[in-house]
Amino acid sequence: MNGHRYLAAHERILELLGPLDDGLPIPATPGWSLLDLLAHLAAAAHDLAEVDVDLWSLDEWTAGQVAARRGRSRAEVLAEWAEHAPAAARVVDDPAAVGLDEAFARMPIIDATGHEGDIREALGRPATIDPADWAIIGPHREVMLGFLVAGAGLPPLRVRTPEGDDWVVGGTYPEASVELGRDELWRSLMGRRSRAAVEGYAWTGDAEAYLAIWVGGTWSWPAD
Prior knowledge:
Blueprint: H1 3-17, H2 34-49, H3 59-68, H4 74-93, H5 107-122, H6 131-151, E1 157-160, E2 166-169, E3 176-179, H7 182-189, H8 195-199, E4 202-204, H9 208-214
Parallel strand pairs: 1-3
Antiparallel strand pairs: 1-2, 3-4
Helix pairs in contact: 1-4, 1-5, 2-3, 2-4, 2-5
């Protein structure tokens, strides 16, 4: 059960905040300040606790969450998150118990750790993924990348990291490969790297064919 990993991300984000200014821009979420990002995370916990997730991750969902909390202080936003985090973690532990797809055992962790990385990078710090979180997120990303490769009609692709990840996605016999660090794999598959950055990874075969799907995650940096 994964709820403890969601709570761990919550605690790590709280530890990051310290004296940070509420207005700190978060480049990975254009137009959002640090307080806006925290409002989204608090709202996501509320919506999970209420099992109100039909619009999960859609732009109108996140925009509405932030707009509804404009004018609230950081203390108020964090209090809301703290109030609902335990119930959200219980949903992550057993989404089927509240009628949700099993993907909700992973998606709140993907969201929280991803935004943790956004804050770290806004501060000029490296974004790193805890191996315990990657054990949950990595297989999800592997499956989703496989769907994208196959759906685009591309030949199978092999993805390897120095940390030991070795995926073959979109089929059985890869005709192209890419090698990169696990943290880069994590961030880039969330759309947090530019097309030029992804193109600069160690590719064999026709890298160009895979770039559009690789950077098409939850958000993509502007074109270079």
